[in-house]
Amino acid sequence: MSDHQNLQRWVEHSLPSQFLTSNTPQLFPLSGDAGFRRYFRVACVPPLIAVSAPPEHENNEAFVRIAGLFRRGNVRTPYIYDVDYQQGFLLLEDFGDQLLLPLLSAETADQFYQKAEDTLLDLQCVPLADNSLPVYSRHHLLDEMRLFPVWFLSQLLGLDVTNEDSRIIEQAFEQLLANALSQPEVIVHRDFHSRNLMPLADGEMGVIDFQDAVRGPLTYDLVSLLRDCYIRWPAEYVSGRALNYFRRAVAAGIADTVPDSQFLRWFDLMGLQRHLKVLGIFARLWLRDGKQGYLADLPLVLHYTLKQLAPYPELHDFQAWFEKRVMPVAQTQPWYQIKQAAPLTGK
Hints:
five-stranded antiparallel β-sheet; Aminoglycoside 3'-phosphotransferase, Chain: A, domain 2
C-alpha cells in the first residue's frame, strides 16, 4: 500500500466527528515547503490539512511540542487534531492559502509588519525557564554558515576554495558568531518571514514551519522578517522598524537598553550570518533536492550580504574578498538579477 493510501486510511479513521463529510474524505495535494513534508487538504467541512512527514526526516515530536509552546504564548499555530508518530502523519487546522508575501505592498506594509511584529513580540515574551528548546549554540551557528563555502561557492559557483579563502571566511564567521552570542536570548522561530506568516480571516497572524525553533539571539527573527529573502524594502524603512521593535522589546522586559548603533550592529551582523547560511541552503535545495525556484532568490541575498558588510571595518577584508572572488562569478550565472526595493511612496 502506498504512503498516500496509508495517509488516506489514517485520515478516514482519525477525522473528528464534528467535521462533516458526505462520503470518504478526499485528499488534495498542496504545494509544500523546503523539507520532506507533504501537505494535503482534506475535503471536509470545514477543511483540514493532512501532513505526511516521514519520521526519518522530520521531527514530528518537536513540531507538536513547539506548537503547544507557541500557542501558550498566544501565537497562532495550527491546532493539531491527531498525530501518528510512527507513520509520520498529522491532522491539522487549515489556515487556508493566503501567505503574507503576496499581500505586501507600499500601501499595506505598515499594517502587516505591525501585526507580524506584534506576533513576534508575543513569541519572544514566552518564558524560557522550562528549557524545552535547544540552544542556538556556537556549533550550530557555525555549521549553518559552513553551508556557504560547501554548497554555494564550491558546488554552485564551481569556485576552488583555497586555504587563503578559507582563512578569510573563517575569520568573518568568528566575528558573526561573537555578535550572535552576545545578544539577549529569546525563542527563535528560525524562519520568521512572509512565506511562513498567514493573515487569517479572524485578523490573527498565523505562524507555520516552526518545528526548528530554538533559544537564541534577539535579532534573528526580526532580521528574517525585515530583510526577507523574498522581498526587499528601502534600508531606512528597515532600520526604522528594527529600532522601533527594539524599544518595544525593552519595554516588554526581554532586552536591556543599549545604544541604537549597538542594536543595529546586532541586527546587521545577525542578518549576515543568516544570509550566508541561506546562500548555502538555497544552492543545496537546487543541487541536491531539485528545487530550482530558490535560485531566483539568490541575487537578493547576495545584495543583502554586500550591503551589510560595508558599515563594519572589521569585516572589510571579507567584503573585499567577496567582491573580488564571489561576485564576478555570481554575476555570470543565468539566475543572476537584482530585485529592486519596493517603493514606499507617501511614508
